[in-house]
UniProtKB/TrEMBL annotation:
<dbReference type="InterPro" id="IPR007361">
    <property type="entry name" value="DUF427"/>
</dbReference>
<protein>
    <submittedName>
        <fullName>Uncharacterized protein</fullName>
    </submittedName>
</protein>
<dbReference type="Pfam" id="PF04248">
    <property type="entry name" value="NTP_transf_9"/>
</dbReference>
<dbReference type="InterPro" id="IPR038694">
    <property type="entry name" value="DUF427_sf"/>
</dbReference>
Amino acid sequence: MSNITITPATGTWVVRAGGAVLGETGNALELHEDGHAPVIYFPRADIAMAFLDRTDHSTHCPHKGDASYFSIVSKSKTYENAAWSYEEPKGDVAQIKDHLAFYGQDGVTVEHV
């Protein structure tokens, strides 16, 4: 089994897409999973969901469950499947429910401010 720990992320975190701030929170969670870089999960309530479109893409993690994906629609471009969420996460990672994580890429950044 993969070792997963989830802790409150210290400080304030911001996610930007196409130069616009999609969300800012002091309530982010930091998920550490063996063999992977830490991932910051933003509370859905702190994200401008109007800029996210759910896609048909999904993935399955044996430790976390099924992930749903969202594209970010900015003025200049659409970032396909750039965010994901575990709608019904498994019990060990239940606290990431109602949170979103983002793929850092050209135009999409997750920053500790």
